[in-house]
Amino acid sequence: MSKISYSLPFDFHSFFNSKPIFLAPMEAITNVTFRSFCKSFGADMVYTEFISANALVRHAKKAHEKLKIVDIERPVSVQIYGNDQDEIIEAAQICEEIHPDFLDLNFGCPVKKIVKKGAGSGILCDPKKMIEITKHVVRSVNISVTVKTRIGWDESSKIIVDLAERLQDTGIALLTIHGRTRSQMYTGISDWNLISDVKNNPRMYIPICGNGDIKSPQQCKQAFDRYGIDAIMIGRAAIGAPWLFREIKYYLQHGNCESKKPFEYYLSILKQFFLQNIYQLGERRGILNNRRHIVLSPIFKKIPNFKSKKTAMLKASTVSSLIDVIDNIF
After folding, report:
1. Residue of 109, 209, 220, 257 with catalytic role
2. pLDDT at 37
3. How far apart are CA 326 and CA 330, in angstroms?
4. Would you call 109 a catalytic residue per the annotation?
5. How far is CA 153 from CA 2, 157, 180, 182, 226, in A?
6. CA pair distance 195, 222, nearest whole angstrom
7. What is the DSSP letter of 300?
8. Angstrom distance (rounded) from CA 67 to CA 324
9. 112 by DSSP, 3-state: which?
């Protein structure tokens, strides 16, 4: 099999020698503020929220707002999704105009309203169409194209090993695999053995990134050691905890966990993030967005009798009321 050449924004292969950790694309989570915070704590590559190709070509305001990237994030990837080939090509060309380092095609989102349109992981039911779309997108832009998908539609159709080869043949630069089927949604256990089968397939030569169930530095190192993948993508575990990337990098380098810092240290990071998020999004949208991080942040989970304070944080409707609760937690 001859290797397809593609343009790369930096020393791509050396990049993967360092066991990079990526921030997964997450709707209403990975905006420019959160991406920048994760980057400051060691995330090697970050992804935008996923963006509808249809909305981009219609010039919908919210879709184009998601295209905002800043240089401190780099390398940064813009992720789009859709089912119509012409729309995705046009959307890819719109994305190219903002000069991201990568363009990622989302073939993995399991959300029903996306899937019923044949987009996201819905396209796993039509792998031929997935390949055709990917091939034409790769040919239509001058930036590196990557793909994120799942291992298959359901338990009886785990097609990822064959599908990965076919995607590679289109000329993509990187393949990220979430180790669940669409039918699993986010339940059950991620199948890292299948991700490993793709990576260890002698016909594969592009980097393989694994995704699913990695929540700690120890799990991250184990995944690298056991499955031989080139990169790991962290999703839900990073919500409300951008410092997780530094903890993982420390563990990979030293073989042990860095010392835990006082609760106040982590709270101060979240406070800075909340304020910056509000500055970027405006008071109402910023406060609503912050609630996702408040609910899922691990720093609040083991504090006894914390329910009333957490409720107050979630009910806060102004910057001043939110900061007042944070400053008076104890």
Report:
1. 109
2. 97
3. 9
4. yes
5. 29, 6, 9, 5, 25
6. 14
7. G
8. 33
9. helix
